[in-house]
Design a protein that fits this description.
single chain, alpha+beta, Immunoglobulin-like, five-stranded mixed sheet, four-stranded antiparallel sheet, 25% helix, 30% strand, elongated, transmembrane helix, Cu-Rt/internalin_Ig-like, copper ion binding, copper
């Protein structure tokens, strides 16, 4: 009976050492849409994670002035979170802060940024104006000059470099806590093994 207990404890120690990912597992962001820069209309933001998520998430989208953009809905399906905006984002830089809980109840949080640069569609309206001039008298020989209007539309949106996506998570806090838990469990198990061997002697 004692030998069986020792074998179980030793097996537990080896499993913790060989597979630390079991206790250090955490959710992390894999990819986003948009990523760093979008030249098309943005009506929703999609985030892909490395593991299945719980059914709750908190997403906040703010512009460069710190104004939060209204969300119409937040959808979670498997590893994907989709934040649907009330209206399309205008050109500018934005930051997304997220908080999630994985299916195994591990919390996670982080943020990333992107820039929206949708090209302006130039619409030119052709002038439709007709002028009737009275016939000139033979004694008047003043030439009629037609005004030439030259319009050179310049729509140059200031382009700013897309800020590097910054994905931060609570991984470090979870890893530190889990590492201490691993060390504590190993110490307890080694102590139990030592006591058992002493009793046998």
């Amino acid at each position: 009976m004692k030998n069986r207990t020792l074998m179980v404890m030793l097996a537990g120690i080896f499993l913790l050492i060989l597979h630390p990912s079991v206790i250090l597992a955490h959710s992390s962001l894999v990819s986003t849409v948009p990523n760093e820069k979008s030249t098309s209309e943005v009506t929703e933001i999609t985030m892909n994670f490395n593991e299945t998520l719980d059914t709750s998430a908190k997403i906040a989208v703010t512009n460069a002035a710190g104004e939060e953009q209204a969300l119409k809905d937040t959808k979670i399906k498997g590893k994907v979170v989709t934040a649907v905006l009330e209206k399309p984002l205008s050109n500018g830089s934005y930051k997304v802060d997220w908080r999630i809980i994985s299916a195994d109840r591990h919390p996670g949080k982080g943020s990333f940024a992107f820039v929206v640069e949708v090209p302006a569609t130039a619409t030119t309206a052709a002038p439709t104006a007709s002028a009737t001039n009275p016939p000139a008298s033979p004694s008047e020989s003043s030439p009629v000059e037609s005004p030439v209007s030259s319009a050179s539309p310049s729509a140059a949106d200031p382009s700013s470099e897309a800020p590097t996506a910054d994905t931060a998570s609570d991984a470090y806090g979870g890893m530190v806590f889990s590492t201490w838990a691993l060390i504590g469990a190993a110490v307890i198990l080694v102590a139990a093994v030592t006591i058992a061997f002493r009793k046998r002697k």
